[in-house]
């Protein structure tokens, strides 16, 4: 019988029992919990589009085994805001039309949220450093 793991996602308690406890958190979020905002890019911790907050820290979910998040608090991009009530960061990205295709933006928003939670008035250099683990395939880094 598959082992179950309980944790919280976007403020709600969840419990999952994947066939393989090494299943990446990203797969569980997308395939079992229906949270499609977190993206699969490289699967190798190289691009950052799978970033989520785990106990408030930005982490790549593509290689994070689900067993390792048992008891933890996860925030995905869906937990930042909604279409009706976007987080100020989401609104800013919309207002500035920062992205192009948008594929990287979930991860970038998560990294940006972690930054402003820790440092509400970052310098440009601090922003660049915080987003260093996120790759934009469209080459929109400067605009973002
Ligand atoms: S998909 Fe996780 S870092 Fe690229
Ligand atoms: S906007 Fe297309 S990957 Fe970043």
Which shape, going by the Cα principal axes?
globular
Could you tell me which ligands this complex binds, including any ions or cofactors?
Answer: FE2/S2 (inorganic) cluster
End-to-end C-alpha gap: 46 Å
Mean pLDDT: 95
Explained architecture:
- With 144 residues, the chain is an alpha+beta fold.
- A 5-stranded mixed β-sheet has the order 2-1-5-3-4, sandwiched between helices.
- The chain contains 4 helices and 5 strands, in the order ββαβββααα.
- The longest helix is centred in the C-terminal third of the chain and has 14 residues, at 105-118.
- The chain starts with a strand and ends in a 14-residue tail after the last helix.
- Bound molecules: FE2/S2 (inorganic) cluster (2 copies).
- The site of one FE2/S2 (inorganic) cluster has 12 residues, from loops.
Tell me the layout of helices and strands.
Elements (H helix, E strand, L loop, with lengths): L4 E5 L2 E5 L8 H8 L18 E4 L2 E4 L12 E3 L12 H9 L8 H14 L5 H7 L14
Parallel strand pairs: 1-5
Antiparallel strand pairs: 1-2, 3-4, 3-5
Task: List its salient traits.
144 residues; alpha+beta; five-stranded mixed β-sheet; 4 helices; 5 strands; binds FE2/S2 (inorganic) cluster
């Amino acid at each position: 019988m598959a082992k179950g793991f309980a944790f919280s996602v976007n403020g709600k308690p969840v419990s999952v029992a994947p066939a393989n406890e090494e299943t990446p958190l990203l797969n569980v979020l997308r395939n079992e919990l229906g949270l499609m905002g977190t993206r699969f890019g490289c699967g190798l911790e190289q691009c950052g589009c799978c970033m989520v907050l785990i106990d408030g820290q930005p982490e790549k979910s593509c290689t994070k085994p689900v067993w390792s998040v048992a008891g933890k608090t996860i925030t995905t991009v869906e937990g930042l805001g909604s279409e009706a009530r976007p987080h100020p960061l989401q609104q800013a990205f919309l207002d500035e039309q920062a992205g192009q295709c948008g594929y990287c933006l979930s991860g970038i928003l998560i990294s940006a949220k972690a930054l402003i939670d820790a440092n509400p008035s970052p310098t440009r250099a601090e922003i660049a450093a915080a987003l260093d683990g996120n790759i934009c395939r469209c080459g929109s880094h400067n605009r973002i």
